[in-house]
Amino acid sequence: MGSGEEICLAAPEDDAALRDLYSRSALSGSLEIIYKREPSFFHALGVMGDESRVMVVRQDDRIIATGTITFFKALVRGEPLTIGYLHSLRVDSAYRHNVYLAQGFEKVHELAAAQGIPFYLA
Questions:
Q1: Would the CA dihedral through 122, 120, 44, 115 be positive or negative?
Q2: Residue 3 three-state SS
Q3: Which residues of the chain have pLDDT under 70?
Q4: With contact defined as beta carbons under 8 Å apart, do 83 and 72 qualify?
């Protein structure tokens, strides 16, 4: 990363900036699709699982990328475990084709390990 970027957890006050990034992140092709998280980015995460952590890449106080890891209970080989699901990756179009995804995966791995999560799905 350059000197002006940092990867950190998003805070509730980032809600508007995250919703803005989502509204500008259309999936292009013969049909354009936009996934939105209105009226609240964080409230919409409640349907994904038990608990979520939203990681963001900030450049000069602007969110340029995000990804979410949601934790939920599942049976793995008959044993109840809490596992993680990595989803909702978005990168501002001006910053695509960069190293942020790989660096974000490293941070997610650190977060999952710190919480004792044995593995996560993507």
A1: negative
A2: coil
A3: 1-3
A4: yes
